[in-house]
Specification:
- There is one protein chain.
- The protein is α/β, with parallel strands linked by helices and about 650 residues long.
- The protein folds into 3 domains: about 210 residues, Rhopdopsin 7-helix transmembrane proteins; about 150 residues, Reverse transcriptase/Diguanylate cyclase domain (Alpha-Beta Plaits, 2-Layer Sandwich), CATH 3.30.70.270; about 240 residues, TIM Barrel, CATH 3.20.20.450.
- The protein is built from 26 helices and 21 strands.
- The strands form 4 sheets. Strands 3, 4, 5, 6, 7, 10, 11 and 12 form an 8-stranded mixed sheet that branches. An 8-stranded mixed β-barrel has the order 13-14-16-17-18-19-20-21, surrounded by 6 helices.
- α22 links the parallel β18 and β19.
- α2 packs antiparallel against α10, α8 runs antiparallel to α9 and α18 runs parallel beside α20.
- The longest helix has 29 residues.
- The chain is elongated and about 115 Å long.
- Bound molecules: ligand C2E and magnesium ion (MG) (2 copies).
- The site of one magnesium ion has 4 residues, from loops.
C-alpha cells in the first residue's frame, strides 16, 4: 500500500510550533500539566514514527525485519498511550482524578497494558498478533488488530463519560474543548478504518491537541498578562501539588492597602505601572518561589519547604520591603501589609483557600494590620463568621429583624428627622452586631431580603403611627451598595411603599459612598425614585476617600458627614479644617447636611458654628425601639 504522509508532515510542523510555545511558557507544576506535557510529547512521538513507518514501508523488503517491527510497535504503542493519557488529562480537568484511589487509577491502565503486551509480543504471535509481515516484508493486520481501535474507543468513551458526569462543575470552554478533541479523533478513526493509506489519525490527534493547548493550557489561563507572574487560577493546582506531595509551605500574601487612593491620585495607567513594579520587586526578591497576583491589588509568594512564618519573620520581611515603587515618571509610596498563611494544621487545598479567602476579605475592607499571621486567630474568626452567618439566616427566616430609629435634631435641638437602623436578633446567638451582619448579608446575597424587610417595617410604622403628621424633614432608610447594583431595586421599593401608601416626601434613602462605584445603575434607580418624590442622602461622607464629584452628579437632597470625621476633627487640627471646609462647601452649593456621631455639647457648639443643618448622635439619643421612639417623640412635643 502507498501511504500519503503529506497530512502527517504538515501536522508535525504545526505541532512543533505548539511544542515551542509550550516549552517557552511558565508552567504550573500540577498533575494536569504533567499529563498534558506527556500527551503532547506522545503525540509528537507517534507522528514522527507514523511518518517513519510510512516512509520505510516500500523499502521494508530490503531491511532487517526487526527495524520495521520496532518502528511500527513504537508508532502504534504511542497512539495507544495517548488514548490513556487523554483520559487521565480529562480526569484532571475535573475532580475525578483526585477522587480516585490508586487501585482505580491502575484499573484505568488495564486496556493499555493489554494492547502494549500484544504489541510487544506481536513479532512472536505473527498472524495471531496485531500485525505481521509476509515473506516479502509486506505489512498485514493480524487477528488482534481490532484491539487497537477498541482500546482507543474505550478511552475516548471513558473520557466522554467523565466529562458528562462532571458537566455541571465544568466551564463551557473545557467541555467544548474536550468534545472537539473527541469528535475530531473519532472522525479521523473512522476515516482511517475506511482509508488506511491516508494516515489521518495522528494528524487529527495533533490538531485536536493543539486546540486543547490554545484553549485550555495557553499561558493566559494561569499567568497574569500585565505582571507576568502567576494569576489566581494557578493557585489551586499549585496547592494541590504541594498537598499531594505532603510538602509543607507558607503563602505570604501582600495586599496593597488603599490602592484605590493611588489610582485616584495618579490615574489608572500610572497605577498599573506601580503594580507592575511591585510584581517585579517580588520576582527579583523571591526568584526561586512562586509569585502570584491573587487579586487586582493583592499579591502572593508561595514558598515550599520554608520555615513556618512567625510574627517576627513577617515584621522582618515588612521592614526589608522598599517603601516606594515606580510608575513611569514618578515614585509612589505603597502601604503594603504582609499576611503569612502556614500550611501546618491545614488538611487540604479547600481549607487553605477558605483561610485565604478570609484574609482577602479582610484586605478588601482595608482593616488589615501591617502584618498578620493567619493562624488560630483567623480560624476562630472564620468560625465566628459562620455562626453569625447562620444566625443571620435564622433571623431573616424567623422574623428576628427589628427596626430602631435614631432621632436627628437641628442646631436648635428640635427633632427634625429620623434614621431607621436595622437590629437583628437570634435566640441562639443573641443580638447580632449590625455593621458586620449587614456586610455579611451583602457578601452572601441576603441583603435584598434584609433591605425589603426593613422597608416593610418602616412603611408599616409610618402608616400605623401617622408619622407624616409629625412634621419631619425625612425618615432615612439605608440602602447598601450591593442593593444599589440590583436592577430591580427601584421597582421593588416603589411596590413596598405603594402597599403602605407611604408619603414619598417623608422617606429618604441613605446611600454610602461606596455605592457610588456602580454609578450608572445607581443613577437609574435615583432618577426613578426621585421622579416618584423620594429623597436621597449621601451617607458616610468623608469616610475613607470622599469623591466630591458624586455630590454634583447625583441628585442628593442632603449629605451626611461621617462620625469619624467629626471625632478626628476634635483631635487633629487639619481634620478640623477639613470638616469646616466640607460644611462650608455643602452650604454654598445649597445642600442640607447632617453630622453623625454628635456626643458632646462641645461638638454641638462647633457644628452649629459651622452651619451644619442637622445633628445625629448619642448626645440626643441612641437608636430607639419603635415604642421608645413614640415616647421620645411625644416628649419632644412633636406628637400628641
Ligand atoms: P450608618 O448608616 O452610618 O448609621 C449610623 C451609625 O452610627 C449607626 O450604627 C448609629 O447607631 C451610629 N451612631 C450614630 N450616632 C452615634 C454616636 O453618637 N456615637 C456612636 N458611637 N455611634 C453613633 P449602627 O446602627 O450600628 O449601624 C451601622 C451601619 O450599618 C450603618 O451606618 C449602616 O451603614 C448599616 N445599616 C444599619 N441599618 C441598616 C439597614 O437597614 N440597611 C442597610 N443596608 N444598612 C444598614
Ligand atoms: Mg445611614
Ligand atoms: Mg453613616
Amino acid at each position: 500500500m502507498t501511504y500519503t504522509i503529506d497530512f502527517c508532515v504538515i501536522s508535525l510542523a504545526f505541532l512543533m510550533v505548539t511544542v515551542i510555545f509550550y516549552l517557552r511558557q511558565m508552567k504550573v507544576p500540577s498533575r494536569r500539566n504533567s499529563f498534558f506535557a506527556a500527551l503532547l510529547f506522545c503525540c509528537v512521538f507517534s507522528l514522527v514514527f507514523d511518518i517513519v513507518a510510512a516512509v520505510i514501508d516500500p523499502y521494508a523488503y530490503s531491511m532487517p525485519l526487526w527495524i520495521v517491527y520496532v518502528v511500527n510497535i513504537l508508532f502504534l504503542g504511542s497512539v495507544q498511550l495517548s488514548g490513556l493519557l487523554f483520559l487521565l488529562y480529562t480526569m484532571t480537568l475535573t475532580d475525578a482524578y483526585a477522587s480516585m484511589d490508586k487501585q482505580q487509577r491502575r484499573l484505568s491502565c488495564i486496556p493499555f497494558a493489554f494492547t502494549a503486551l500484544a504489541l510487544l509480543f506481536t513479532p512472536l504471535l505473527k498472524q495471531n498478533g496485531i500485525f505481521y509481515f509476509t515473506d516479502g516484508h509486506v505489512y498485514q493486520h493480524g487477528i488482534l488488530h481490532l484491539t487497537l481501535y477498541v482500546t482507543i474507543a474505550f478511552y475516548m468513551f471513558a473520557a466522554l463519560v467523565v466529562m458528562f458526569h462532571h458537566r455541571k462543575a465544568l466551564s463551557k470552554t473545557k467541555l467544548l474543548a474536550v468534545i472537539s478533541f473527541l469528535s475530531t479523533t473519532f472522525a479521523a478513526m473512522l476515516v482511517q478504518m475506511l482509508h488506511p493509506y491516508l494516515l489521518v489519525n495522528s494528524m487529527a490527534n495533533a490538531l485536536a491537541l493543539s486546540l486543547i493547548y490554545y484553549v485550555l493550557e495557553a499561558p493566559s489561563n494561569h499567568v497574569d498578562t500585565m505582571t507576568e507572574i502567576y494569576n489566581r487560577a494557578a493557585l489551586p493546582p499549585l496547592l494541590q501539588d504541594l498537598f499531594d506531595q505532603k510538602r509543607r509551605f507558607t503563602l505570604f500574601v501582600f495586599p496593597l492597602r488603599s490602592f484605590r487612593l493611588i489610582n485616584h491620585a495618579i490615574g489608572m495607567r500610572n497605577g498599573d505601572s506601580v503594580i507592575v513594579d511591585f510584581a517585579s520587586y517580588l520576582k527579583r526578591t523571591y526568584p526561586k518561589y512562586y509569585c502570584l497576583r491573587l487579586a487586582g491589588t493583592v499579591f502572593g509568594v508561595l514558598m515550599p519547604e520554608c520555615e513556618p512564618a512567625t510574627l517576627e519573620s513577617l515584621w522582618n520581611m515588612h521592614g526589608a520591603m522598599p517603601h516606594e515603587f515606580k510608575a513611569d515618571k514618578l515614585c509612589v509610596e505603597l502601604d503594603v501589609a504582609i499576611v503569612g498563611v502556614n500550611s501546618e494544621n491545614v488538611k487540604d487545598p479547600e481549607e487553605f483557600l477558605a483561610i485565604l479567602e478570609n484574609v482577602l476579605s479582610l484586605g478588601r475592607e482595608e482593616r488589615l494590620p501591617a502584618v498578620l499571621l493567619a493562624d488560630a486567630d483567623i480560624r476562630s474568626r472564620m468560625q465566628e463568621r459562620k455562626a453569625l452567618e447562620l444566625a443571620l439566616l435564622r433571623a431573616l427566616d424567623n422574623d428576628g429583624l427589628q427596626v430602631y430609629y435614631q432621632p436627628i435634631h437641628n442646631c436648635d435641638k428640635k427633632l427634625v428627622a429620623l434614621e431607621a437602623l436595622v437590629r437583628l436578633y437570634d435566640p441562639e446567638y443573641g443580638p447580632l452586631p449590625t455593621q458586620e451582619a449587614v456586610e455579611l448579608a451583602e457578601e452572601n446575597g441576603n441583603i435584598d431580603r434584609l433591605g425589603q424587610q426593613v422597608l416593610h417595617k418602616v412603611c408599616r410604622f409610618i402608616q400605623e403611627n401617622k408619622a407624616e403628621a409629625w412634621g419631619l424633614d425625612h425618615i432615612g432608610v439605608n440602602l447598601s451598595a450591593v442593593q444599589c447594583m440590583q436592577p430591580g431595586l427601584a421597582d421593588s421599593n416603589l411596590r413596598i411603599c405603594a402597599q403602605y401608601v407611604t408619603p414619598s416626601s417623608l422617606l429618604a434613602f441613605e446611600i454610602t459612598e461606596t455605592a457610588t462605584g456602580s454609578i450608572d445603575m445607581l443613577h437609574l434607580h435615583m432618577e426613578c425614585l426621585c421622579a416618584a418624590g423620594f429623597f436621597f442622602l449621601l451617607d458616610d461622607f468623608g469616610k475613607g476617600y470622599a469623591n466630591i464629584s458624586h455630590i454634583a452628579y447625583l441628585p442628593f437632597h442632603c449629605v451626611k458627614i461621617d462620625k469619624a470625621l467629626l471625632w478626628e476633627a476634635m483631635e487633629d487640627e487639619s481634620k478640623l479644617f477639613l470638616l469646616h471646609g466640607v460644611a462650608d462647601l455643602l452650604q454654598e452649593i445649597g445642600l442640607k447636611s447632617v453630622c453623625e456621631g454628635v456626643e458632646t455639647q462641645e461638638q454641638l457648639a462647633l457644628l452649629r458654628e459651622y452651619g451644619v443643618s442637622m445633628l445625629q448622635g448619642y448626645y440626643f439619643s441612641k437608636p430607639l425601639s419603635p415604642e421608645a421612639l413614640l415616647a421620645y417623640v411625644q416628649a419632644q412635643g412633636v406628637r400628641s
